[in-house]
Write a structure and sequence with these properties.
CATH class of the largest domain: Mainly Beta
Oligomer: single chain
Radius of gyration: 24 Å
Shape: elongated
Strand order of the largest sheet: 13-14-15-16-17
Strand content: over 45%
Largest sheet: 5 strands, antiparallel
CATH architecture of the largest domain: Beta Barrel
Number of helices: 1
Structural class: mainly beta
CATH topology of the largest domain: Lipocalin
Order of helices and strands: EEEEEEEEHEEEEEEEEE
């Protein structure tokens, strides 16, 4: 250069030098609502290097370098119940790829549709803290913020109550018949004698 100036590309001296390691090949991000919480799944696919990296909730669970076959699948577990998840990598022409996530062998969409039939979810705010309560209808397990709760079941005149505590708060899930075959059983969360509206996930 005519000025003889050896100044760096960056204006401030704190900027890092250019690094290939800092580059990311992030191609897909999914959020999956399970009983123990909502999990974030991220997938990096280096189509020139053959790299495949899977992160669950920010933690690396799979890393493969120099894969010569750019299509295929990666299987791993998500959440406290070790739910099986698979990322499918398919070529869609030329150098374009499609990434789909399966949970327990079903497409994410199908899994979430089925899940909405087999669980109830409530989000509430108690003592300056947010809580996510999930009832698994098939097992009657109750989860709160990722932990399976100790519960006690009780038969009452119009159905059943499943009792548990969140901190110092008395909670129960009341199950009553809707009286209609298609609707089945209606579940309601009661905290400190106050009904909490259900959340749609």
């Amino acid at each position: 250069m005519a000025s003889g100036d050896d100044s760096p590309i960056f204006e401030d001296d704190e900027s890092p030098p250019y690094s290939l390691e800092k580059m990311t090949d992030l191609v897909a991000v999914w959020e999956v609502a399970l009983s123990d919480g909502v999990h974030k799944i991220e997938f990096e696919h280096g189509t020139t290097s053959g790299k495949r990296v899977v992160y669950v909730d920010g933690k690396e669970v799979i890393r493969k370098e120099w894969m010569f076959k750019l299509v295929g699948k990666e299987t791993f577990c998500v959440g406290a119940a070790k739910t099986k998840a698979t990322i499918n990598i398919d070529a869609v022409g030329g150098f374009a790829y499609e990434y789909t996530l399966e949970i327990n062998g079903k497409s994410l969409k199908k899994y979430m549709e089925n899940r909405s039939k087999t669980t109830n979810t409530w989000v509430l705010h108690l003592d300056s803290e947010d809580f996510r309560v999930v009832l698994e209808k098939d097992t009657l397990d109750v989860w709160c913020n990722g932990k399976k709760m100790e519960t006690a079941g009780e038969f009452v005149d119009d159905g059943t109550e499943t009792h548990f505590n969140i901190g110092n708060h008395d909670c129960y899930i009341k199950a009553v018949s809707s009286g209609k075959r298609k609707e089945g059983i209606i579940h309601s969360l009661i905290v400190d004698n106050r009904e909490i509206p259900e959340t749609v996930e």
